[in-house]
Amino acid sequence: MQGNDASDIIEHHVEEEMEKKGTRSHAASSSSSFPGSVTPSDRDGHSGTQSSHRLLAYSDALISIIATVMILPVAHTKLRESVQLLLTTKIAVYLMTFLIVTVAWAAHILFQVIVRIDDCLALLNLACMMLITFLPYTFSLMATFPENVLGILLFCGCVMVIGIIQSVIVLYAFSRPFLLNEQVQISENQTFYKHHILKVIMRVPLMCFLASIFSFIFFQLSYVLLAVVIFLPYISQSLKWCRSKAIQVEESPDSVLFYSYLPNEPLSKDRVEAFSDGVYAIVATLLILDIEDNVPDPTVVQKQFGGSLTAALQAYGPEYLAYFGSFVTVGLLWFVHHSLFLHVTKVTRFMGLLNTFSLAFVGGLPLAYQLTQEFQENSHNELEAIQISCVIIFFAGIFQLAMWVVALYNEQETLHPYVRYGGREHVFMLAKLSLYPCVALGTFFLTCILSMFSAPIFHLMEITVPFAFLVLRLLVRVGLALLRLIFCPERPDPRSVIEQEDDEVTVPFNALIT
Amino acid sequence: MQGNDASDIIEHHVEEEMEKKGTRSHAASSSSSFPGSVTPSDRDGHSGTQSSHRLLAYSDALISIIATVMILPVAHTKLRESVQLLLTTKIAVYLMTFLIVTVAWAAHILFQVIVRIDDCLALLNLACMMLITFLPYTFSLMATFPENVLGILLFCGCVMVIGIIQSVIVLYAFSRPFLLNEQVQISENQTFYKHHILKVIMRVPLMCFLASIFSFIFFQLSYVLLAVVIFLPYISQSLKWCRSKAIQVEESPDSVLFYSYLPNEPLSKDRVEAFSDGVYAIVATLLILDIEDNVPDPTVVQKQFGGSLTAALQAYGPEYLAYFGSFVTVGLLWFVHHSLFLHVTKVTRFMGLLNTFSLAFVGGLPLAYQLTQEFQENSHNELEAIQISCVIIFFAGIFQLAMWVVALYNEQETLHPYVRYGGREHVFMLAKLSLYPCVALGTFFLTCILSMFSAPIFHLMEITVPFAFLVLRLLVRVGLALLRLIFCPERPDPRSVIEQEDDEVTVPFNALIT
């Protein structure tokens, strides 16, 4: 390897890289007889074990779909009366489900300790997944029949069974230590790890057990307990974060090493990315899921439009616009998310929380876009629908911006070294992140003032934003040059001039070679 | 690194591992000032470029959702008359869309040559994705109005615009060589690469252009052309495969190296896995997407069931069963797929084709399970629905088995070294792969004979299969031991005895340490 003569930092980093690839690196370094690969039989007698990497990716995909599914009942609500009706039960159910499923996803962290799986663990995990996909339904029951304890009981039953299955997974894995992370495997505190993980896993099922008992006595208390379950991890983590920022605790490197594999530590960046990708992908295609409704019936075309398919399709015009608008917005928000996470090395719990909030609003986007085409033009409802869309876009964007601010705030642990020193990349990143919130805010206030032209303003916004992203890099460069010209016109920065010259020179130079 | 003193093979393998992580390894090996990471500014003047890894993963997720979406119109068809009606247009549309989208996915291979992206490429790719998600709709139009040319025109228009965007991506990337794969970058044949890729990309759009012209003259010919577009890559590849097997061409290592980055070469294993995961995940959750239909209306509960929610929910019993049956079957088929791909190092085009067929049948599973609960018990339709389910499961499983057989057939290039020598892992893999086809076939014939008990037989099958997977390893071991006992009772294999002893000894030994 070319990294042989490099510094310790590189070695450490490369090792981290390979850590992420699951046990491939372990296999490569521990047994030289079968070079670097997922070898089910690389340790004698332990045949049939596999890296947990793909299992985790599949689970993440399942969970991200389930998290966004509850927006569908909201979207399918046919309301011709007022948008305000939407802002009641169904949206609350959607947000709650999203948060619950995200808690379940974050709790599913045990496969960071268990890096190798065998068939038994894979099947247990699938059982666990099936129960998680059932959670939105129980929650939907609770929302429809708040007075009935059946919803609470079903929900708590699911959570308890999930907890039991997860405990079985942990006990099974610790009884076969070759399945564990190498660091846990060689640790002397294996029993401590086991007990700690079991404690973390069983916390939520125990609270659900209490909730299910209280549901027979005084069911309002059960709801309080469930709310605590959902919000507690976030509240405790944000409190912890605030406290650590206030007191500036100096953690010794030992304790960091010791705790780095415990479940309440920062989320794995790969998993956050995979989960976010899943949510963005399903949200982007949510409107096309109703595709069959947009194909007109042949008899209707014959009768109403005299056989002219073009005329029949024109009736669906607004729906195409809604689909494209929603897809473009989700796609661009994914693009911003992608750019942001390129600079991030580690996702703290607080950043994870902000990411969840951002994703929850992204999930509402297709709904908002669908609303904008459902009402008569220039009606009060259309204005409301457009303003709700703007608000949703604004919050989806502003939480992304907040993530960047939080990452900058503790840049030592969260950002790549090369972005820590600021410069043009920083400005560019900020411009990217603030484009959507600014545009959404601008559109919102414009539609308030010029309420007659709300629809044209909104559609103009939809069309211009993608182009704004295309020319953003140019704009930022021009803006910076202008700023430099205004504030220090006498001393042009020599470095940046060289850089820009480089830019111009490199391309033709390379083109000449080819 | 611990691999320092190991053989060349390991080093080569580790480098391959890192290759997969995109440019992280490039950054680590080429510029030691910024240790191993995706560094937007690791080459001066090229700030703002990024690894294309996550973009590709997101695109794969989008495409896999779109491929399976067309099963929804089939599933939502309300037919009380006969199952046979289903087997007409809508299933054909579903299968066609699946194949078309898979062709689009396979053609989206250009990001194997372009390993670094900048903002412009990311946005162009998103535009491309949006058009791909629109393809199922145009296809649906074609199926509903086969005589109208509008469907053909829309479809061809989309494909042509996709082709133009892809060409722009290629031209843009080749004008900035630092975005390209290192191997292409240092190659002297860069222009040849460019022209070859452009040729491959523009083939399909050109045929669509022809189809759109013919649609005005003689539109039946357009359909023929489109069918050619869909099947040609598969037919040509399978013909090529058959020929290469028949003639046994000895390819020189040079030509392999030369062609390994050309788009018509074997698919990337990572991408096949990601695409399959996406399809399995969306199919597993497809039935829960209709979740809102299964929450009873409060007024109905009050009137019809006297306020008893439990009684109201019992009416949905068969639907829960359908959901769990479908989830379990899809989950276990994923599990088999996962086990299979652990042994595979490279996916040939023919294996990719078999995988696509298997996935297409998997996509039909939720529909089949929904059918089984839609008809009256012991009716002729119920029997038909159950038999269709068995047929779908059988084909989904048999194509997986075929993939394994094809992989074994050219094991030199497709399998890990340690599985080439057969043994217990082989037998176990075969048992896993043949479990579902065998069970489905058995259920099919049992329901033919005992048509009165078709539903109980089917539900018994659903319940036993997961347990069969759990005890499969044990069964295979017992079966092998029995075979050994029967055929060579005098000479027990000493190696396996030691291995089994090891198994028993290891666990308590490790437990003692902790």
TrEMBL record, chains A, B:
<keyword id="KW-0813">Transport</keyword>
<keyword id="KW-0472">Membrane</keyword>
<keyword id="KW-0631">Potassium channel</keyword>
<dbReference type="GO" id="GO:0016020">
    <property type="term" value="C:membrane"/>
</dbReference>
<feature type="transmembrane region" description="Helical">
    <location>
        <begin position="353"/>
        <end position="371"/>
    </location>
</feature>
<feature type="transmembrane region" description="Helical">
    <location>
        <begin position="91"/>
        <end position="111"/>
    </location>
</feature>
<feature type="compositionally biased region" description="Basic and acidic residues">
    <location>
        <begin position="9"/>
        <end position="22"/>
    </location>
</feature>
<feature type="region of interest" description="Disordered">
    <location>
        <begin position="1"/>
        <end position="50"/>
    </location>
</feature>
<feature type="transmembrane region" description="Helical">
    <location>
        <begin position="149"/>
        <end position="174"/>
    </location>
</feature>
<keyword id="KW-0630">Potassium</keyword>
<feature type="transmembrane region" description="Helical">
    <location>
        <begin position="123"/>
        <end position="143"/>
    </location>
</feature>
<dbReference type="GO" id="GO:0005267">
    <property type="term" value="F:potassium channel activity"/>
</dbReference>
<keyword id="KW-0812">Transmembrane</keyword>
<feature type="transmembrane region" description="Helical">
    <location>
        <begin position="465"/>
        <end position="487"/>
    </location>
</feature>
<feature type="transmembrane region" description="Helical">
    <location>
        <begin position="55"/>
        <end position="76"/>
    </location>
</feature>
<keyword id="KW-0407">Ion channel</keyword>
<feature type="transmembrane region" description="Helical">
    <location>
        <begin position="430"/>
        <end position="453"/>
    </location>
</feature>
<feature type="transmembrane region" description="Helical">
    <location>
        <begin position="204"/>
        <end position="235"/>
    </location>
</feature>
<feature type="transmembrane region" description="Helical">
    <location>
        <begin position="320"/>
        <end position="341"/>
    </location>
</feature>
<dbReference type="Pfam" id="PF06736">
    <property type="entry name" value="TMEM175"/>
</dbReference>
<feature type="transmembrane region" description="Helical">
    <location>
        <begin position="386"/>
        <end position="409"/>
    </location>
</feature>
<keyword id="KW-0406">Ion transport</keyword>
<comment type="similarity">
    <text>Belongs to the TMEM175 family.</text>
</comment>
<dbReference type="InterPro" id="IPR010617">
    <property type="entry name" value="TMEM175-like"/>
</dbReference>
<dbReference type="GO" id="GO:0015252">
    <property type="term" value="F:proton channel activity"/>
</dbReference>
<keyword id="KW-1133">Transmembrane helix</keyword>
<keyword id="KW-0633">Potassium transport</keyword>
<protein>
    <recommendedName>
        <fullName>Endosomal/lysosomal proton channel TMEM175</fullName>
    </recommendedName>
</protein>
